[in-house]
Amino acid sequence: MIQLSATVRRFSLVLAIVAMASAAGCTKAQKSDESNVPNAPTESDNALGDSDSGKAGGLQSIHFPYDSFALDSEAKSVLKANADLLKSKSGLKIQVEGHCDQRGGIQYNIALGEKRANAAKKYLQDLGVAADRITTISYGKERPIDSGSSEEAYAKNRRDNFAVTSR
Asked: Which of 27, 74, 106, 141 is the most exposed place for a label (fewest CB within 10 A)?
């Protein structure tokens, strides 16, 4: 019997919950007035979302070399900008999502994605963002942003993106 990592089990649970919620249908959420709430989203912040979709309130994705979780100077520069944004919006909580390209096995890529997400989290913490504002998850190779099989496509998929989980 194959032993699954905690991240894979957590991912499977999330998928099951999403599937059940989709099957049950959704009710229309009531809109609340957040205009007087500190750190409430503004029109320019968009809805809760992630940096891949452009709906993370200015947070940007970072990319990695092949088979690596090392942060290069470009990734560190982006993380510095992300940290500055997070420090200016003290109520913002995020999830760092580690991704890999389509090459390699599922378990290997889940582990590599986790190392990538944790590297970004640690760097954000070193820059002064509180650890309790950052969670991590690895999607391995399961959520490519480009399904092509060229080096250009692979490079797009080797990333951490940042999802806003709470404002």
From this structure: 27
